[in-house]
Each structure stands twice: as structure tokens, then as C-alpha cells.
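Reading group handout, session on sequence-to-structure problems. Before we discuss, look at one worked example. The prompt was deliberately terse, the way you'd type it at a terminal:

> structure UPF0550 protein v1g238755

The input record follows.
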Amino acid sequence: MTSKSEVMLEHFYIFNGTYAKKEGEEEKKILYYYPEKDLDVQIKNIGLSEAIIKFTESFNPGQPCDYCHTHKTRQIYYQPEPNFWMVMVSIF
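And the output record:
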């Protein structure tokens, strides 16, 4: 007997980390965010994604992070152009 687990989209966002030059301008990084959430939640999630991307670059320079699996989520990272990131977070 097998059990099926439903996969649900928790977040999808597009950001460019170079668009915020100073502290307090983090909202300028956000190009698109779904579903609509409080700005503080958006900034926190994008900050976490930036930290994961920068951390993984230290292990393999030139090869950006593609995905990150946690106990509850799967995060998929795609860089269509330099400095632009698309991130999809799903719950399973």
C-alpha cells in the first residue's frame, strides 16, 4: 500500500539582490512575489534565499545552487540572467 502526499506551492518569487544598495531598501530587490504576503515576510524569505545562494557558492564557485531540501519544503532556484533569481518553494 502506498500513500500519496500532496505537493503545494508555498511561495514563488523573483528578485535581484543588486537592486538594494543600502540597508532599509530591501523591498527594492523584490520583482514578483506570490502569494501576496506581508512585506516583512517577503524580505525574510528572500534574505534566506540569498544566504543559501551565497553559502553554496563558497563550495562550488561559478555553479549556482539549484535546489535545497528541508524536512518540510523543497526550494528550487533558477538564475535566468546574472543577479536575477527565480525561487519556488513547495511543501510536501
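Points for discussion. First: The chain has a mean pLDDT of 93. Second: Residues 8-91 form a domain with the Beta-Lactamase fold (CATH 3.30.450.70).
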